[in-house]
User: Fold this.
Amino acid sequence: MPVHNADIAAAFRRLADLLEIEGENPFRVRAYRNAAATVGGLPRDAAGMIADGADLSELPGIGDDLAAKIAEMVEKGSLHLLEEIETRVPPGLSDMARVPGLGPKRVKAIHDALGIDTLEALERAARKGRLRTLSGFGAKTEKNILDQLARFEGVEKRLRLIDAEHIAEPLVAYIRGIDGVKQAVVAGSYRRQKETVGDLDILVTAKDGAAVIARFVAYDEVGDIVSKGTTRSTVMLKSRFQVDLRVVPEVSYGAALFYFTGSKAHNIELRKRAIRRGWKLNEYGLFEGDDRIAGKTEEEIYEKLALPFIVPQLRENRGEIEAAEKGALPDLVSLQDIRGDLHCHTTASDGKYSIREMAEAAKERGYAYLGITDHSKSQTVAGGMSEDELAAQIDEIDALNEELDGIRVLKSCEVDILSDGKLDFSDKLLSRLDYTVCSIHGAFNLSREKQTERVLRAMDNPHFTILGHSTGRLINQRPPYDIDLEAVMDAARERGCYLELNAQPSRLDIDDIHCKMARDLGLKVPISTDAHSTDGLEMMRFGIAQAGRGWLEAKDVLNTLPLEKLLKAFGR
DNA sequence: GCCGTTTTCGGCCCGACTGTTTTCAGTCG
Assistant:
């Protein structure tokens, strides 16, 4: 069974958990966690890199030992050290360590004293009041553990960025209305525009932190107050979504914004950079001894550290600091660069509006073109068109283009890729289109080899242009199907095809890491909304956010091209 | 386990809050 980066990262994370419970050197533990992040964020499968003779020890945080362990995983599909530790440390302990409030030390103490190694046994012991007999544990800790166990299931899910916005916007508006609040902004993964957000980190500047926090915890939606100090507070909303608030003085705004935006890995790199210069960087500023030499803005912190400003989307320690040093940071694509949308639906299949209405909405957004991509005949549940209906739609679009001014409607179709790799319409009909978006809507469970083969075969069809939502994942609902996107991208480049970045907040497919892979391969990425209504065109901004996280510049995005060049790129 | 502008050993990011202590350990972000 081929081993993928996610498997290697999971093994390293598990190893780190178990080593930590064993009381191993915390820096060794951190090395495994860092390595998990590095491998998980690689634009290519480590297996392929090794096959190509790459030296993985050149990767940041990967030395000879970890490179050898990655090779071992790739070769054998398992890790000897992990198996060995699992014979000493019961696997249930790593589950216990995931209970909020329980860390490696407490888990070890509970296991050593009471022999507990499952969540069930932990709950029984807490109910019987056995935990409080341990030194360092009291009645309150025991109750907290019980409370956490009660809500343990179903809590872990991260919210889609769009859902987080719906919580954050009214909350920030409320905080801005509190007396004495100067600035209030959401930092964290929300500001980095990650596809999902685990909690909200809100930064406030004000003189009297305690007063602000008193009002914050009184917000209507607050369920439980987890902690409440004079500078920070954590609450759990009634929706079980966590919000952290931090109050700092205005002079520290930039430093705090930097600190709470993260990512943690990016922050640590910059702190080390400060240390090398004999300084200290924390959420209050950049300090030389007791003197604050920067901190009011993020820009001055980067400047002092001899770096150009790095936008939040790039702050993942995935090469952005090295790029900044070399003056090679990407100038990220923005909404203003987009000239049109290449994937949307109308009443001809499962959309809500006519072609004309969609085209007018696109024109209002300042677009020069809009591709109409209704479903093909196999998509019966989504009102897929018959051959005759698509033929009629082609004529309708030709006539409409005669009438419309300032926007060109492109003739296309979201054509099903059948399970054998054939396309769902005849070549003769497809040849009348400006381009196609070809998508998988069924047979998700094929093996990686078969699924990849299926798409490559479809791509052999000369009328194949864009692969729609390339992995089929639905965030928090459905995992991606197993497919070798690297092979697909290579094939797409050879054949003049493209992989879509679907901007739907539940899809964002391809993801940031694969966007970067496409960029590295020189493969332009179309960013499309898959809109089923005029409002749906608005989702473009989520695609732009994901593209930025994948380092895409305007030149890397297909639909920044003006109409003539776009048609040329389609071979028309 | 990694790494080098104090470079092959001896460091490794930094601070707030809670609960248990009575000066601090554990956890979290």
